[in-house]
Amino acid sequence: MRNSEKIEVTMFKMLKKIIKYPRLTQDYPNKPLKSGMFIGKPEIDQTKCTLCEECISRCPSEAIIMDSSDHTIDINYGSCIFCTLCEEVCPEGAIAMTDKIELAEKEIRSSDQSNELIESQLQAKIKKVLGRSLAIREVDSGSCNGCDYEINALNNSINDIERLGIHFVASPRHADMLLVTGCAVRNMESALIKTYEAVPDPKLVVAVGACACSGGIFKDSYATSNGIGTVIPVDVCIPGCPPQPQAILYGILKAIDRIR
Amino acid sequence: MSLRDLNAKIEAGFLKFIKNSKILNGNELYIEINQDNIPELGVYLNIDLGCSLVSLFATDEREFNHYRLYYSFAERQSGSLIILTSVVDQNSSTFMSISTTVHAAARYEQEIHDLFGLIPIGHPNLKRLVLHGNWPEDNFPLRKDFPLSHKPQTVDCISEFTKIKGEGVFEIPVGPVHAGIIEPGHFRFSVAGEPIFNLEAQLYFVHKGIEKLCEGNNPEKCYYISERISGDETIANSLAYCQAIEKIAGINIPEKAEYIRVLFAELERMTSHFGDLAGICIDVAYGFAGSQFNMLRAWSYGMATQLCGMRFLRSVNRLGGVRKDFISGKEKSLLEQLNKIQKELEDTVDIIINSSMFNDRIENTGILDTKIAFDLNAVGPAARASGIANDMRKQFPYAAYPKLKFKVPVYTDGDVNSRMKVKIKEVFESINLMRQVIENMPAGKDFERLGPLHPHKEAFGITESPRGENVHWVMTDNNGNIFRYKIRTPSFCNWPALCYAVAGNIVPDFPLINKSFNLSYAGNDL
Hints:
A: 260 residues, alpha/beta, Alpha-Beta Plaits, Rossmann fold, two-stranded antiparallel ribbon, 8 helices, 31% helix, 15% strand, globular, B: alpha+beta, Beta Polymerase, domain 2, Cytochrome-c3 Hydrogenase, chain B, 5-stranded mixed β-sheet, 17 helices
């Protein structure tokens, strides 16, 4: 076959594929996820719980805590690594994994009244400035790379985050939001602070994954911190280990108040 | 040659050196010798017998007034490990460097120097590796008297890089925060115009102290840490850890669990390779092929989600087997999906190998020389693309691999093209393996329960991760908890190989070469 013919045949095969797969993108969040797809947060049935504390002693990331004020056992989702061990070891069957993955929560930074007012004014200003388009800079501050792969997946044809006016940028100077993974390890601390400072005001910080929210399973080592909140101010925390791409998208949209 | 023959051969030549030797776990020969004799016997094993150095680590045994070093060499024909051990005096804290002759030892010795404060005499480059300039001197985190959560005061010290001098030579610093969504690392290129003279990679930006975190913890918690050593190698790392613990506990896992482990390990390999292939295509702006491979990767994730609800295959393994029967009832749908993936991959490969523009970019780019690959003990697809047919699934068979049929693809050019072809062929082999697992799934239990572990036992766990050989070593303490957990992932071996492969290429080809190796920063930095 001559070279030009070869190119023609290849082009034809490519076109065939493009016609075969015209659109793979899922319309999340407009269409909700199929139920039962993912393993999401564990929940405790307080009526069955006998406070035997088996789950507390076994939890590898110390996410399950005894609330001494009302004598109940609670799960700190920011620390939880969704490992399913608590469901497995509970002798009463009081803990069950659910399929809920939309777990992002806004951080409450201060209880002071006057600060709250400034906060809400600032939030309103941020929304006004950022509008419906958002530029994100991602920083890995010491993750296992699971969260980073999931953030990457937001750009693939299944999630295609740009359809929502959100895009990732190469420089923090072009960004409105920092998406931070990892537990702000010692060797990344100054790079994380410099990146934060390079983002122009007003800016948002979203912590992705258990490590960024709380240090996750790596907390309390000589090289890690207990979450990026110990280094820079955080607006939204997305639990998960790693959170699914849709869970990250949910958190980003929540940070800019496009989801309530 | 069997392990006993090997032992006899070593004894014949070096009997006067040997203080003590024992065979553990079937294929681990531990030989205790004096520190002074290490260079001679190390060179004999590495150069005369061709055994590669697969791990080198220290333990703090100062309750017995010494540190101990373990030099692990792999005898790949018989699938056995020869481990030279020697004590290091706690007062002098020095040992003989072997890195000028056994080149693969260089980075291990640097690591021991940083984390234990032991000084390798005669090491050519004792630059700090794990701990950066912010770490004060005389603080050694893996010593037992260093508390886990102690955070020493930050000091200021700027890292020095190799200087290349000459007219028109300048440096390009890149990172640690990169333009793309990748892990952090700092690259210092010395270039004249476009061609790269030298690349020095400063890593360990994501050093979390994983080995220290495991010490003193119970084996169950450490299992969950091992899953999170490197995000996309969950099965490979957790499996290596499980194997080590299962050997220490002296149990055999059920046959069914062995098959399920293979299925997930191959699914992980397929998913990872699709990501690499997509990356290679995207880095040469071949958008169509990149989208195809990304679609295939998404389908692989779909299979993972259907099987266990976790895209990164977390909580699939457990000590003693697998958590539950993930396959039963899904066989038909899995086989259909595998057929669909295979067909689409065949079509895509047929298109890309006929694209001359694409081939121009990947052929002869980033060549890793076979000799360098051997000297540095380069592993995985990178080594197999440079003519080194090493695969731990064949050489140190584990799980159900000895019962299954598969080929190990090898190419000899050592360029991006060869690495890409190795990965494509490996995906076909993975699909084939998964089919065999589904069709031959035995009945039985999912896992065997483990009792408390015996104190003072040690064992290796070895797997072939998508990136290459993965060597873990575990030793238990007085209470049956973890005394020392040494993790050596394939990325640790391949980072120096990447720096060699980049030299002589142009700067715009660096991302492409980097992607063809696809190394994990987290797996290297721990």
